[in-house]
Structures are given as structure tokens and as C-alpha cells.
Design brief:
This protein has about 120 residues and is an alpha+beta fold. The protein has one domain. The protein contains four helices and four strands. It has a four-stranded mixed sheet with strand order 2-1-3-4. α1 packs across α4. The two termini are about 25 Å apart. The mean pLDDT is about 85.
């Protein structure tokens, strides 16, 4: 439960940029998830959010890799509505990959994309 609370705190703190990235990814590649990769860290410590890899992973990419049906995020991607929700997937050291379908009515992904120009997280 503590990990889930940490994830929700990170999502809430970074929602504008995560939602903007989700919307732009959807427009460019179709349905997918924003991945917060705590397993692959750029030039720093996994404990330091400034060095996290954050990227969009589309359903099409998962299908191309032949892992769609086995991937833990497929149900969330199938079920979400891009205009009002985003799927956020955390890749954690050790292989855990919890996914969350997030809907924050105060700022939808299209609204976030309009307000948050570059979609940069952090």
C-alpha cells in the first residue's frame, strides 16, 4: 500500500506533464501508457526523480513486440478513455510493473497538452 501511495503522490505532483505526454502519445501513436521507468535510470540514482526515464509506450508497440497479451498494462489500455484519462505504468527494479488508470477531472489530458507545451516531466 505504501508503494501505491508513493506512486499516486508522484502522479498527482506531475499530472500536468504526464497528462500532456499521454495525450500527445495518443495522438501520435494511438492508445498506450506513460511509463515511469524506475528500473532504467539515466545518469543518476533511482531514488532521484530527476533522473527517471519517462516515455510513452503504445499498444501498437506492445503488439509489435509480441507481448500484448502478457503485459500487465494491456487491460488498463483497453479500458481507458484518452480524452479524460491516462494510463500510468511504473517499471520498478525487480520486474514489478503496476499500472494505474487515472482520471483527474480538473485537468484532462487534452487540456494539459494545451497548457503544458513540451510535455516534459519533472
Amino acid at each position: 500500500m505504501e508503494i501505491e501511495q508513493q506512486h499516486m503522490g508522484y502522479i498527482a505532483s506531475n499530472w500536468p506533464s504526464l497528462a500532456a505526454m499521454a495525450w500527445r502519445g495518443f495522438q501520435a501513436e494511438g492508445k498506450g501508457a506513460v511509463v515511469i521507468d524506475r528500473e532504467t535510470v539515466r545518469q543518476g540514482s533511482a531514488a532521484d526523480d530527476r533522473f527517471l526515464m519517462v516515455y510513452y509506450l503504445s499498444e501498437a508497440t506492445l503488439r509489435e513486440r509480441g507481448v500484448w497479451s502478457q503485459h500487465p498494462v494491456c487491460e488498463a489500455i483497453d479500458a481507458y478513455t484518452p480524452e479524460t484519462e491516462a494510463v500510468i505504468l511504473f517499471r520498478l527494479p525487480g520486474g514489478d510493473q503496476p499500472a494505474y488508470k487515472i482520471n483527474i477531472e480538473e485537468l484532462t489530458p487534452p487540456q494539459a497538452a494545451a497548457l503544458h507545451g513540451d510535455g516534459h516531466v519533472g
